[in-house]
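ok so I'm stuck.
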Amino acid sequence: MNPQLQYQIEQFFYRKSELCDAQDWDAYIKLFDEQSEFHLPQWDSEHVYTRDPKREMSLIYYPNRSGLEDRVFRLRTGKSASSTPMPRTLHMVNNVRIGELEGGDLEVRLNWHTLFYRLATSEQFYGLATYRLKPHEDSWVIARKHVLLLNDTINSVLDFYHL
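replied:
not stuck anymore, here's the structure
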């Protein structure tokens, strides 16, 4: 793997984490292609998760970016009880692995860990993610985000900004 490409992709995901933690939703959403799919499946059993978001249950499924845009719109209204007040978050990514796909796209697999604080409560989520990135101008956009939540006993609200 090209060390320069590895560095660029790691920096892309560090920036994505930083934008989410800063709640810079406009810049965050621009990282996603308009047709970007966002999928967080649920676990069917201890070691098997659902695969088809159109036929099986998911914790979050947006077939394109408009689902994410709608969620951000609701956050901005201040009428989302589950997100008022917004939590403080800290996203960490590591073990970034890159595979090249046809047409210049990349498949990026990484581990993630999010700490968050809201209303005197600290919690954490962690898991694995697989992204499909496609070239866009001098960087990349997310064409697909597939997230596995490994600690799926959820004691609080779960939203896109936790992942």
